[in-house]
Each structure stands twice: as structure tokens, then as C-alpha cells.
Amino acid sequence: MDLPDFNKKTQRLKKENQNFFRRLINRPPKNLDEIFHSTHDEVFENTDCLSCANCCKTTSPIFYQRDIERASKALKLKPGAFIEKYLRVDEEQDFVLQQAPCPFLNTDNYCSIYNERPNACREYPHTNRKKMYQILDLTFKNTLVCPAVLKITEEIRKKLEV
Ligand code: SF4
Ligand code: SF4
Q1: Does the reported pTM lie above 0.85?
Q2: Considering Cα of 7, then 93, then 64, then 75, what sign does the dihedral take?
Q3: Strands (E), the chain
Q4: Considering only CA atoms, which residue is closest to atom 1 of ligand 2?
Q5: Distance 78 CA to ligand 1 centre (A)
Q6: Is the pLDDT of residue 28 over 80?
Q7: 58-99 pLDDT, tens per residue?
């Protein structure tokens, strides 16, 4: 994955994608979930996340209590010690990582706590979720992070001819 190239491209398309998502928010098609889910499957069939890991390099998942318990157990730490070592509270009062890239990301882009990773990591980039109309703002923001979301957006724009 050529991330510098992706960054240039997504910045170039930022304004028009923002306008596209605004239009979708105002007038979501009835089959929005269907369109997103089929396009998600098509794009991820040809996406190699291990050659990318831009999500893990640049953003933090939210860690809910059950995520903290699972990850701290895997690292043989008490939840309190895990929080102190790795997490901070953000503006929305959620626990997030103190730093980016994620400290659990290995140099080969594998996650060192893969089986115990937070739910938000499992579900990222959320483009196969039900009720996509509820997260269109977030999906626009993810066009700036995730090459797959940018591609999904491009494909959906073509399908909807807007
Ligand atoms: S989910 Fe998106 S940002 Fe994360 S590794 Fe895959 S393509 Fe890259
Ligand atoms: S916990 Fe693993 S999957 Fe989640 S951001 Fe860190 S390296 Fe990526």
C-alpha cells in the first residue's frame, strides 16, 4: 500500500467526498446498507490490510471496560496498570491510546494482541455495519485514514452517479 500516495489522493478528494456524504446524510437511499455492504465486500476482497495498517498507525480505538480486561489479561497486567501504561481519557471521556502508532503494532504490521484486540479494531472501518446512515459522518472521516474506505466511497459514488 502506497500510503503517501493515498494521503495525497484523499486530501485532493476531501472536499468532493465531504459534499457527497452531506448529500447522502440529507437524502440517504433506502438501500444504503445494501450498497455499502456489497461494496465493502468487493473492496476488501482486494485489500491487504497487512501492507497498510494506517488505522493502527494514526488513530486509536476506544477501549471499553471489557476491552481493557481482555487486553490487560493477555499482557499479564492488572487493568489499572494497563490503563496507566497505555491509555488516556479523551474529550468524550473515553479511554484511548496515549500514542500513535499503537504500541501493539509490530513492525511487520501484525497486531501483537490480535486475538484480544479491542472490539473497535475488529469492527473497523465499520462499512459493513447495519444502519450506515447513523455513521456517515464517521465514514467520511475514515476516508482520510483508510484506503479501503476511500475506495468504497469512490465505488458508491459511481454506483449512485453523484
Ligand atoms: S482497515 Fe483500512 S486503514 Fe486499516 S489496515 Fe485495512 S485498509 Fe488500512
Ligand atoms: S490493538 Fe492491534 S488492531 Fe488495534 S490499533 Fe493496536 S495494533 Fe491495531
Answers
A1: yes
A2: positive
A3: 87-89, 95-97
A4: 117
A5: 30
A6: yes
A7: 999 999 999 999 999 999 999 999 999 999 999 999 999 999
Q: What's the CA gap between 77 and 75, in Å, rounded?
A: 5
- One DSSP character per residue, 43-68 reads HHHT--GGGT-HHHHH----B-HHHH
94 φ, ψ to 5°?
A: -100, 150
All three cell numbers of 145, joined, read 485514514
pLDDT at 162: 53
Domain positions in the chain are 3-55+125-160, 62-123
Instruction: Give the pocket of ligand 1 (CB within 6 Å).
Output: 47, 49, 52-55, 124-125, 145-148
Half-sphere exposure of 148 (CA within 13 A, CB side): 24
* Choice from 5, 41, 146 to test ligand 1 binding pocket (greatest atom count within 8 A of CB): 146
Instruction: Give the residue, by CA position, lying nearest to ligand 2 atom 8.
Output: 56
Q: Which atom of ligand 2 is nearest to the CA of 53?
A: 8
Q: How many CB atoms lie within 10 A of CB 137?
A: 12
